[in-house]
Amino acid sequence: MNAPLRLLSLLFLIGCSVVVDARPLVRHIRSTHEFERLLKKHSEETGLPVIVDFYSDGCGPCRMMAPIFKKLASEIGQDKAVFVKVDTNAMYELSSRYGIRSLPTFLFFYNGQKVNEFSGAGEGQLRQYTQGIVERAERENVLLTKDSLVKYYKEKDGSKSEDAVNGVYKKCVDMMKNNKSGLCVGPAATKLAKNLKKKYGDGPVLEKRFKAEEQTPGGESKKSNDSSSTTKSSSSSASNKPNLNLATIEDLKAELEKRIDEALEAQVEEEEDDDAEFEHSWSGPGDFPERVTIIGGGPAGISAAIYAARAGLTPVVVAPPLGGQLQGKGVDVENYPGMHNVTGPAVISSMREQAASFGAVFEMENVVSVDASSRPFKVQTESNVIETHTIIVATGAESNWLNVTGEYEMRGGGVSSCATCDGAAFYQKDVLVVGGGDAAMEDALVLARTSKSVTVIHRRDTFRASKILAQRIIEHPSISIKWNTTVQEILGTSIESASSSDDSEDVDLDNVEVPKKVVSGAVLRDITTGKEERISCDAVFVAIGHTPATSFLDGIVEFEPDHPGYIKTIGRTTKTSVPGIFAAGDVADNMYRQAITSAGSGAAAALDAERWLSEEGLGNEAAEFEAELLAELMADDEGSPKIADGYNAYEDAGGRMTGIRESVGAEL
User: What does residue 292 show for φ and ψ, rounded to 5 degrees?
Assistant: First the structure.
């Protein structure tokens, strides 16, 4: 079989299997070509804006924003905007093209052009930017046809020649940059109509450029199919039939690529959303207080949830889906028994699934404050108040920062504390890692997989990390080390900010600025000689330890006097100075700070909480209430008089139903 015939056969097979009816709520991009095709499609066929979430599975803030992104997509509607996600670990080319330096990063496209962006876990920003670009798309979805303009001038100014009208129309078309449609559309059409109204009293009729059915999922495909059907039915000549003698290999390849794109589009519809695990599973405040509320979603918190759930306490785990420090561990977890060839995010995901299987429920929000002045306790989240008899605090620790010039300014522009989150954004680039502990070693190993070079900056002449990790760093060919060195300043360079509009002077997306500086280098100081040097780099990853995330408990529980931020526990238990509040994990461990020790203390906290509830006589109040209510109803029933003439179903069968099959009894 020759090449053209083979290609035509492929075209037939692919064409038979392609059916595109809709688009998913949130689409996952799998190739650069697919992304380019999507931008082109919605620029030319629907006019819808495209909102893109650049993320990584190992990024805690990304996981926190995932349900928010999906919820916003549902609220906005598929006929208003297109929401897509790009995994930076798989899409290096796209990440590099758009300068992704921190995760998550959200880009906003309109008419195929990027018009805005921001980085970070900011729900308010995401909603503000999205609403702005949706309103812009609706405002600019106008079309002034040439026929309408000609008709208008005939009514208003008959002296205007056809050439003059064509000149006005062409000027309107040329006002829009990158306008390949040859039509007077968008703000140019609106501006022309406004000027004509001012001159003649009223303006020409403007139409919707993209109709509602075209913007509805599946509408653009239906339009294309209808158009194709009309063309086929209106032409039955032999010249319109495929002709292998006239078709070139290039023509067939182009058509084959088009059919493959359509097949991939159809496959997208069959994808299931992978954000279901982030949905809120806590049903909200009930009639009775919760028995156990766990604040934190790392190994300590999830371990406590498993033990409490197995004890029938139905714990509520309150935490964004960050998963603690283990969630950001991109290398394999090697020091946790039973875990082999598995990364931190996978461990946390498995823990959560196990806890949920035993009845634990999750509230994916941050805790704002705790009120322990009265019983039951009140845990204030971002949108709810949870009343609870006991609290297990397992909030872990937050990253420490260098506090040097340029650090805060360029967070999100190359300064990061999470190599697993942001490392993929610096593919084949030079990066620095600051620190000498296990966290710094792990970050350096993660970055060495994708970065051009990794330089570890440590202020001492030996690492504090475990021997095996330190040896891997020293022997790694892509990693260099600067001993006895500190970072004095992080240098940056200005980049051109994204324009809020390429096509109209009237568009203003609330004047929101985007970051203007990105990392270009650092000033280092040798602490033995005092000599300073400048080093070029594209990112600085800070891994110099953590501070317990316990500030929301200031004035409520006692802290360790010699270790600020660490909660003081009583003896060898997890009890705190407040009865009913327990501490587990790094918040109470200033010595070991390991995932496995955190998990152990989480289990201990659940056991302590269960014992405390029993001692206080606080059981399952909802079940006890139902039992008491049922007992009262039964007592009332026993005391009520019997109804002598009540209906007896057996009498309908002549009293002969006992011991007889129902079907036979019915016949009798």
Answer: -135, 125
Active site residue 418: yes
pLDDT tens digits along 286-343: 889 999 999 999 999 999 999 999 999 999 999 886 656 776 666 677 778 888 778 7
**Farthest CA pair distance, the chain:** 110
What radius of gyration do the chain's Cα atoms show?
33
Question: CA distances (Å), 146 to each of 197, 200, 202, in order?
Answer: 17, 18, 17
Nearest in space to 544 (alpha carbons), one of 449, 463, 425: 463
Torsion of CA 406, 412, 416, 420, to 10 degrees: -160
Catalytic annotation, pick one of 59, 172, 418, 537? 418
With tokens 């330890």, the residue in question is: 545
Angstrom distance (rounded) from CA 230 to CA 222:
12
145-170 pLDDT, tens digit per residue, is 999 998 898 888 888 888 888 899 98
Average pLDDT over residues 246-262: 67
Per-residue DSSP letter, 43: I
- Which among 53, 57, 422, 443 is annotated as catalytic? 422
pLDDT score, position 567: 97
The neighbouring-strand residues paired with 575 are: 582
| Separation between Cα atoms, residue 599 and residue 605, nearest integer Å | 10
Q: Which of 17-31, 411-425, 579-593, 602-616 has the highest mean pLDDT?
A: 602-616
**Cα 512–516–521 angle (5° rounding)?**
155
- For residues 629-646, give the mean pLDDT: 67
Question: Which tokens hold the place of 484?
Answer: 């006895």
Closest CA to 204 of 147, 137, 140, 136: 147
| Average pLDDT rounded to a whole number, residues 541-547 | 91
Cα(517)–Cα(227) distance, integer angstroms:
49
Of 62, 172, 421, 537, the active-site residue reads: 421
Angle CA 533–539–540, to nearest 5: 65
Give pLDDT, residue 437: 93
Mean pLDDT over 428-442 rounds to 94
334-367: pLDDT as tens digits: 778 888 778 777 888 889 899 999 999 999 888 9
pLDDT digits (tens, 9 = 90+) for 57-68: 777 778 778 888
CB 101 within 8 A of CB 426: yes
The pair of three-digit structure tokens given for residue 140, joined into one six-digit string: 């600019």
Please answer whether residues 527 and 458 qualify as being in contact, where contact means their C-beta atoms are separated by less than 8 angstroms.
Answer: no
Q: Which amino acid is at 479?
A: I
Residue 514: what residue type? Answer: V
Cβ(119)–Cβ(412) below 8 Å: yes
Distance CA 50, CA 41 (A): 11
Could you check whether the bond before residue 376 is cis, i.e. omega within 30 degrees of 0? yes
**Confidence (pLDDT) at 16:** 52
537 is catalytic: no
Distance CA 108, CA 465 (A): 42
Among the listed residues 508, 515, 134, 90, the one whose alpha carbon sits nearest the alpha carbon of residue 126: 134
**Quick one: which of 87, 176, 77 has its CA closest to 130?**
77
Tokens at residue 238, please?
């032999």
